[in-house]
Amino acid sequence: MSSSTVPNLVLQANNLNYAAMMFIRCYCYIVIPTGTIGHLLSVYVFTRPSLCSNSCSRYFLAASIVGLAHTVYVLPMRMIQSAFVDTDPGAYSVIFCKITWLCLNSLRGSGFWLIVVTSIDRYLCSSSSTNTRAWSNIRVANRVIPLIIIVLFTAYVHVPVFFRIDIIPATQKPICYPPGPPGTYRIILSYFNLVVLGLSPSLLMLIFGLLTLRNVERSKQLIVAPTTNAPNAIHRKTNTHMIRMLIVQVFVYCITGLTFSVALIYTAINASRPKTIFEVAQENMINATVGMMSTVGPCLSFYLFTLSSGLFRKELKNLFSGIHNFVDHSSAVANTTNTNR
């Protein structure tokens, strides 16, 4: 490599690293406020009487709460660590390094796996078997949700054990490496994340999503007498809206999850290959883009719910109508008080 080529590679690498930093900043500046507001509205909607008795709604509520934690904790931490220079608190505190990456990985996994169990719940609910449908209920949901979160945090209990502060050879600066400390553990963690965060949840969501659609199509072919039972009709309508919301969620999670899996495979395969500074910057840019886009499902689910379900939009309209009526009533009372004076 000629001496004139090296400065060019360094300049191009710096430009790519800066572009990755700016992308993370802009993404976080947009998603953190909009995602936080959206999740708070989702929590309100899924606790309404028309939805709170539905098991799928309970899973969506849990996913929204985990998504809220993802939005207000994971994204700001990723922005602090990756979108600015020398601002990572984990580079100066080993406790912070260990706890932060335990929470980051566990929360990300919890969001994916809650959608997986939601897919399973809709498959059970849409089954023609009464015994199978019986497993789709609030009591099961209330037990499965904390179990999923506990299992995910337990699955990443090795992170506090192996994560540590390393020194970057080129700059002699401390760093808490996001993919784990260099060596065998990083490779193992890459494949572990590939299974836990990438391939497994994406494939399971896809499989149970397709099975649910098959059950729905079969139920449409059954010839049944029209029912005059209003509660049953409302229940079926609610389930239909839940399936619509789930299909959109599964589509987004599968696309982002499989893309994330491909990036993990690429990183793991090329982990031991010598790279130029420009190739390292290219990988950083790819990882920044894919990593941020993998948060679309957990952080922006409210907007997917709004687009896919009329029932969800109806509950939102009721909320905004109530706020509008309250403001009008307060204004009228204030005007009346001023007039009486």
From TrEMBL:
<feature type="transmembrane region" description="Helical">
    <location>
        <begin position="99"/>
        <end position="120"/>
    </location>
</feature>
<keyword id="KW-0812">Transmembrane</keyword>
<protein>
    <recommendedName>
        <fullName>G-protein coupled receptors family 1 profile domain-containing protein</fullName>
    </recommendedName>
</protein>
<keyword id="KW-0807">Transducer</keyword>
<feature type="domain" description="G-protein coupled receptors family 1 profile">
    <location>
        <begin position="38"/>
        <end position="305"/>
    </location>
</feature>
<keyword id="KW-0297">G-protein coupled receptor</keyword>
<keyword id="KW-1133">Transmembrane helix</keyword>
<keyword id="KW-0472">Membrane</keyword>
<dbReference type="InterPro" id="IPR000276">
    <property type="entry name" value="GPCR_Rhodpsn"/>
</dbReference>
<feature type="transmembrane region" description="Helical">
    <location>
        <begin position="59"/>
        <end position="79"/>
    </location>
</feature>
<dbReference type="GO" id="GO:0005886">
    <property type="term" value="C:plasma membrane"/>
</dbReference>
<feature type="transmembrane region" description="Helical">
    <location>
        <begin position="246"/>
        <end position="269"/>
    </location>
</feature>
<dbReference type="Pfam" id="PF00001">
    <property type="entry name" value="7tm_1"/>
</dbReference>
<feature type="transmembrane region" description="Helical">
    <location>
        <begin position="289"/>
        <end position="312"/>
    </location>
</feature>
<dbReference type="InterPro" id="IPR017452">
    <property type="entry name" value="GPCR_Rhodpsn_7TM"/>
</dbReference>
<feature type="transmembrane region" description="Helical">
    <location>
        <begin position="20"/>
        <end position="47"/>
    </location>
</feature>
<dbReference type="GO" id="GO:0004930">
    <property type="term" value="F:G protein-coupled receptor activity"/>
</dbReference>
<feature type="transmembrane region" description="Helical">
    <location>
        <begin position="188"/>
        <end position="213"/>
    </location>
</feature>
<keyword id="KW-0675">Receptor</keyword>
<feature type="transmembrane region" description="Helical">
    <location>
        <begin position="140"/>
        <end position="159"/>
    </location>
</feature>
